[in-house]
Amino acid sequence: MNYRPYLQDGIEVSELGFGAWQLGVDSGWKSVSDLEAERMVRAALDEGINFFDTAPNYGHGTSESRLGNVLGSLDRGTIVVNSKFGRLDTGEVDFSADLIRGSVERSLKRLKMDYLDSVIIHSPPAELLDGNRNGHYEVLEGLVEEGKILAYGASVDAQEEITTLLTTTNAKVIQSFFNILHQDCTGAFDMVKERGATVIAKIPFDSGWLTGKYSATSQFAGVRARWSEDEIRQRAELVERVGEILGDAVPLISAALLFCTSFEEVSTVIPGAVSVAQLQGNIRSMQDALDPALRESLVAFYEQEVRALRLPW
After folding, report:
1. Is 297 part of any domain?
2. Does residue 267 form part of some domain?
3. What is the pTM of this model?
4. What is d(CA 10, CA 69) in angstroms, rounded to the nearest whole number?
5. pLDDT reported for residue 30
6. Measuring CA to CA, how many Å separate 240 from each of 107, 220, 230, 243, 252?
7. Which regions in the chain score pLDDT beneath 70?
């Protein structure tokens, strides 16, 4: 496992992180049992993964609790945990600044920890990213001073959002929608580096499309039912084009992960997994290599064929 800087003066994190949405009971994903959840977390640790991403609303707090059952007894100097605020353990969405402290304290209790390495505002409305107009960041700065969190930031999707956050707050953590088909955030990567911030790359498989398991005839239920028939056909055509670009150089699933980590501003990438087998498959996929020229071809593909489409999530 390779490791990268996360926070200044902090421990380095595994470039493959553990996205813990799937640990939440009834989280909108395929649920896993308590036993399988524990096996997955322990397998991740055994493979050298030391970065864990969770949130209060992942299964109404059960993702955090299941992580805490394993991680809570470990030396905090060996693991890094990121949680969130705004999408609450009650299932409600409420970004009110006066709820931040209580949310963080409940997360700490479930995780059985004294502090969080980072807390990010969980996909907030764009107007909340401006630190000059919102009191959220004063509260978060207070939690940093108290040692309850080491850093804060936000989960966002676009270059403009990252720029607003970094120029108006002391945010150090950006969790961004980033994959071969969604590269807008890279436009802010120079600023990320300049500000000493870091990026957690989320949704690297584009909700499964960049694993190669879907086609133009695929049908979806649950959270993936959001795509129309036209959007499904469009996604299928784009994934086929990615395959043509890759040829036999590297498998699609490997390219999806390696593309994200080919950018030095990215500290870790957090694909989902619903079993130990899937987790280990992701780890194996990171052992391939992505040629720099191939990365540039994928960037050019996005700029020339994808950006203007403004693909929905």
Report:
1. no
2. yes
3. 0.94
4. 24
5. 57
6. 41, 19, 15, 5, 10
7. 26-31
